[in-house]
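Try this one yourself first.
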């Protein structure tokens, strides 16, 4: 892919342990969110580690992916990509004012403990990015460069009335790395180019 960010959703949550699941397990245990799940209360402690393991797997995703997805759908960037697609024009520069990007997910974990009724726990995961004004470079239909800037990230995890937020600020280049460029147009547009 076009990114090689080392910052994942899990590492954003992880501040005290090299193992992201350790801190996540502590968070889930302290919140008592499993005890609040219908039919799970008395045996919730048995489900803590498996639920944490399932969530940690879900959180092993590049934190910068929603930024790239949002930029792929930005009209000005798509116009610049179309204008430069043939590769015969000089790069185009697109300035984006300070902006926010949000990404909302609902990971589910199915829990079955012995004779108890199976329970599906639905978590709410919200990623909110606040990006400074920046200038993006588009050439040959690809996003190939971005100016330095900071990005504030707030990740919220919730379920059954429990909400936990963790915020941090990163250099944008920590979240988004462009190697050979990010395609901003549908794959068919690039397939039509002469080789």
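Now uncover the answer:
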């Amino acid at each position: 892919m076009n990114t090689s960010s080392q910052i994942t959703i899990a590492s954003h949550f992880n501040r005290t342990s090299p193992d992201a699941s350790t801190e996540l397990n502590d968070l889930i245990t302290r919140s008592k969110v499993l005890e609040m799940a219908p039919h799970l209360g008395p045996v919730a402690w048995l489900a803590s580690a498996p639920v944490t393991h399932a969530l940690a797997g879900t959180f092993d995703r590049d934190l910068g992916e929603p930024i790239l997805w949002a930029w792929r759908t930005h009209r000005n960037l798509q116009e610049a990509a179309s204008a430069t697609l043939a590769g015969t024009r000089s790069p185009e520069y697109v300035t984006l004012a300070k902006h926010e990007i949000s990404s909302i997910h609902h990971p589910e974990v199915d829990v079955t403990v012995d004779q108890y009724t199976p329970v599906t726990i639905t978590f709410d995961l919200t990623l909110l990015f606040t990006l400074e004004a920046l200038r993006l470079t588009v050439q040959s239909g690809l996003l190939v460069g971005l100016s330095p800037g900071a990005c504030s990230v707030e990740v919220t995890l919730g379920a059954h009335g429990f909400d936990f937020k963790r915020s941090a600020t990163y250099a944008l280049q920590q979240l988004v790395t462009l190697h050979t460029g990010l395609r901003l147009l549908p794959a068919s547009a690039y397939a039509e180019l002469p080789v």
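Discussion: The two ends are 21 Å apart (CA to CA). The mean pLDDT is 86.
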